[in-house]
């Protein structure tokens, strides 16, 4: 019996293959065009719809009592796109949406004081103030998401604020969302919520700020800069509710991208052992210098172990010392908890497991084999001035700016070996030195500027900080230092942990105990 030859693409003549490929390409192009048109029409329709639905002109939320929309299927009311300041520059990015369990409102939009949902009532429900800032970009109204139904079922009030960001422009082309404007918008939203406490379900003394990544940085800033006069001129300029307040009860910070002034140093300190993106000798040597500088920076902070009061420092090698040991203890704790709960079925040459406790024996091995670097050197104030952080700290008339003052002395040290690179980069970095306005913008976006310093502000009494052990967006030490400085004040409750196996985008989803934490601190403070 003869065998019938199966002829696929690989068995065809070149002309036949060419025609089939062209036909396939044309089909894919047509499909792509259709998808683009559909998406474009949806976006235009959605934008037009939301533009018509902005609630502007009154700072009294009772004025919009008839605008609450009930979703009977999910049992909640929504009041969307309420402009939260009197002089908005961009209403699409200076508004907020509110979602409440339907038991908390009467049909006419007034508060039902006897309404109950989950463990809470209309008077006692915590308010979750969820910013969606990512990469320091703007969050327009069209990006506001539908409420988390589980949160609503548990009785929480949800608020999603929009805010300006690094690409937001005024009509004259100037940038109007650079530091500190995104934070100013979020503060204005809180002031609006607090000013309307009598006509809004939820306890405005129990506002929980929640954010991830750059939004985690914003959440940390909301937690430490409450009612700081440093932001007053900016708030007044947009017509925020100045008779109200912008302090919060608690800050939930997932993988916060903050302390931008030292973020490049921290990144090289942590990820320097992975040279996969360090393609030249210049980049490798620059990485080494920044990593050493980070050791000096950490030691300058005079950090203390919150349990023993002993100093936390790094030795000159950067891979020993009490601070390094403290970080590993935190990582070992989360690894042990994970393996005890889920079993240990992975073979890591850099980790030991005795059946009860895990121990990272080689931190550089952990980096090289488990959590590799994702960014080059430099990682935040990039050599090409191309990162979101380069834009976030730039002025209104600048597309981007350098801001890392450590790069200039590093380039000077490398001049003899790499004169071409020094010549290429030095001038642009040096131009940022001693820039008073830039230094001001950096300070207003760094929570460490307000913790344990002469700055006066109302710091939130509670913080929850989570970072995944597979997060390679910034150094683990950024969140650790934030927690340690908060604990040094002696007046702040800080719950800071790493989450085994979670990456940058998944750490918030992995925090399944968040609502238990929220309810527990509300209960203890009653």
User: Largest sheet at a glance?
Assistant: 9 strands, mixed
Question: What's the total count of β strands?
Answer: 15
- Uncertain ranges: 1-51
Q: Total number of helical segments?
A: 16
Give the strand order of the largest sheet, numbering strands 1, 2, ... along the chain. 1-2-3-7-6-8-9-14-15
Q: What proportion of the residues is helical, as a percent range?
A: 25-40%
Distance between the termini: 87 Å
Task: Give me the secondary-structure category.
Answer: alpha/beta
Radius of gyration, CA atoms, in whole angstroms: 26 Å
Strand-residue fraction? 5-15%
Mean pLDDT over all positions: 90
Overall 3D shape: globular
Sum this structure up briefly:
With 526 residues, this protein is an alpha/beta fold. Helices cover 37% and strands 13% of the residues.
Descriptive overview:
- The protein has 526 residues and is an alpha/beta fold.
- Helix content is 37%, strand content 13%.
- The chain has 16 helices and 15 strands.
- The protein has helices at residues 14-52, 149-153, 181-195, 214-224, 232-237, 263-271, 281-300, 322-342, 363-369, 388-392, 407-413, 419-430, 436-444, 476-488, 507-510, 514-524; strands at residues 69-71, 76-83, 95-101, 116-117, 120-121, 127-130, 157-161, 207-212, 250-254, 303-304, 311-312, 351-353, 358-360, 462-468, 493-499.
- The strands form 4 sheets. The protein has a 9-stranded mixed β-sheet.
- α2 (149-153) links the parallel β6 and β7 (157-161).
- α6 crosses α7.
């Amino acid at each position: 019996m003869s065998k019938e030859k199966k002829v696929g693409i690989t068995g065809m003549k070149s002309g036949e293959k060419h025609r089939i490929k062209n036909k396939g390409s044309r089909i894919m192009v047509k499909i792509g065009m259709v998808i683009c048109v559909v998406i474009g029409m949806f976006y235009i329709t959605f934008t037009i719809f939301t533009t018509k639905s902005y609630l502007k002109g009154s700072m009294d939320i009772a004025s919009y009592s008839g605008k609450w929309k009930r979703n009977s299927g999910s049992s909640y009311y929504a009041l969307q796109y309420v402009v939260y300041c009197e002089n908005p520059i961009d209403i699409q990015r200076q508004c907020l949406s509110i979602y409440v369990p339907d038991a908390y409102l009467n049909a006419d939009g007034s508060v039902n004081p006897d309404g109950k949902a989950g463990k809470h009532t209309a008077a006692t429900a915590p308010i979750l103030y969820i910013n969606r800032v990512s990469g320091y970009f703007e969050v327009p109204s069209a990006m506001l998401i539908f409420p988390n139904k589980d949160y609503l079922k548990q009785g929480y009030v949800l608020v999603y604020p929009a805010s300006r960001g690094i690409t937001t422009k005024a009509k004259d082309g100037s940038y109007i969302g650079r530091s500190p404007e995104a934070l100013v918008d979020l503060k204005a939203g809180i002031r609006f919520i607090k000013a309307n406490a009598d006509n809004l379900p939820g306890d405005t003394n129990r506002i929980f700020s929640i954010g991830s990544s750059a939004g985690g940085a914003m959440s940390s800033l909301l937690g430490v800069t409450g009612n700081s006069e440093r932001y007053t001129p900016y708030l007044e300029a947009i017509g925020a509710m100045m008779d109200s307040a912008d302090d919060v009860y608690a800050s939930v910070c997932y993988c916060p991208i903050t302390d931008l002034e030292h973020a490049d140093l921290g990144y090289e300190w942590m990820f320097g052992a992975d040279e996969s993106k360090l393609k030249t000798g210049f980049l490798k040597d620059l990485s080494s210098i920044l990593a050493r500088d980070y050791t000096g920076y950490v030691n300058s902070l005079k950090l203390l172990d919150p349990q023993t009061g002993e100093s936390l420092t790094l030795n000159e090698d950067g891979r020993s010392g009490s601070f390094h040991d403290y970080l590993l203890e935190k990582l070992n704790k989360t690894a042990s908890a994970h393996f005890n709960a889920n079993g240990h079925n992975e073979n890591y040459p850099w980790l030991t497991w005795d059946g009860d406790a895990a121990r990272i024996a080689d931190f550089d091995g952990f980096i090289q084999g488990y959590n590799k670097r994702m960014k080059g050197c430099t990682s935040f104030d990039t050599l090409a001035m191309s990162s979101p952080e380069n834009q976030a700290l730039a002025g209104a008339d600048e597309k981007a700016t350098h801001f890392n003052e450590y790069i200039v002395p590093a380039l000077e040290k490398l001049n003899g070996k790499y004169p071409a690179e020094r010549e290429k980069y030095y001038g642009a970095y040096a131009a940022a030195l001693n820039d008073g306005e830039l230094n001001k913008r950096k300070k207003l976006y760094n929570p460490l500027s307000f913790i344990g310093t002469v700055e006066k502000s109302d710091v939130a009494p509670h913080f929850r900080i989570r970072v995944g052990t597979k997060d390679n967006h910034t150094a683990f030490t950024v969140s650790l230092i934030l927690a340690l400085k908060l604990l040094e004040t002696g007046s702040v409750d800080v719950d800071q942990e790493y989450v085994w196996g979670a990456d940058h985008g998944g750490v918030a989803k992995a925090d399944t105990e968040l609502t238990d934490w929220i309810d527990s601190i509300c209960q203890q403070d009653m």
